[in-house]
Amino acid sequence: MNCAKCVLGTFAAAMLSSTAMAGFVVEDIPAWRGAADTAYYNWETFTSADSTQPNFPNNEAFPSGSALLFNFGSDAIITGAGNIYGYGGALNIHTYGYADSDIQEAVFNFATMGTEINYDGAMIAWTGANGEQGLISNLTESINYYEEVDFGQGPGSIVNVSWSIDLSSVDADVREIGMIWQSDTVNISLNTVSMDLRFGDIPAPGALALLGIAGLAGRRRRR
Q1: Could you say which DSSP state residue 119 is in?
Q2: ∠ at Cα 201 (110, 204), nearest 5°?
Q3: Which tens digits make up the pLDDT trace of 163-206?
Q4: What is the DSSP letter of 169?
């Protein structure tokens, strides 16, 4: 390893660690979080900086088999604040969710510091119950919070970004979903992640009322 790069990475990591924030400044929380047929996972600290070991969500009993996060990038470390910091290479983050029923919708939130994510390259990978697979690219991100900060290595930023994915039109019983992104370059710290999944359809109140009326009408006809 280049010693100059090692010293630079250690210095930058110390700068980013000293300004690390727990949680999101602004998080895109779906209205259905906590409802029936949904799941919520979050990562506020990480234990693995590479792909040899997964990062399990902090709000699940260890180890969770329902959600995993990996960094497939090189030259990353876990900082003193528990962040994944890419000091010598870009981060390549894969956040996976697994389900026993059809995933209809997903919302992913990420809090980063330093350089930024390559938003244009972000994509969704999914796998169906029968082994079908697909990729969804050209995603539209929402920048929920943005602050320019000088961490001692030049201008950087604190960013809270989210992606909301509608899978209801996918012609498959989706059981696995992965959110994949890479950073533009080095010197990025991944602070916090959340993933919300919704399974099956949740009828709106008006639709529920119509279903009730339809049921009554059917019973009247049978009589």
Answers
A1: G
A2: 100
A3: 999 999 999 999 999 999 999 999 999 999 999 999 985 555 55
A4: T
Of 146, 49, 35, 29, nearest in space to 91 by CA: 49
Give residue-wise pLDDT tens across range 21-60. 568 999 999 999 999 999 999 999 999 999 999 999 999 8
Q: Cα(62)–Cα(53) distance, rounded to whole angstroms?
A: 13
pLDDT of the residue at 16: 52
* Residue 127 contacts residue 174 (beta carbons within 8 Å): yes
Distance (Å, whole) CA 2 – CA 158: 28
Mean pLDDT of the chain: 85
Q: How many domains does the chain have?
A: 1
Q: ω before 155 within 30° of 0 (cis)?
A: no
The Cα 39–Cα 105 span in angstroms is 11
Report the alpha-carbon distance of residue 183 to residue 160 in Å, rounded: 14
Domain hosting 157: range is: 3-222
Q: Which candidate, 104, 158, 167, places its Cα nearest to that of 139?
A: 167
Q: Which residue has the tokens 């939130």?
A: 109
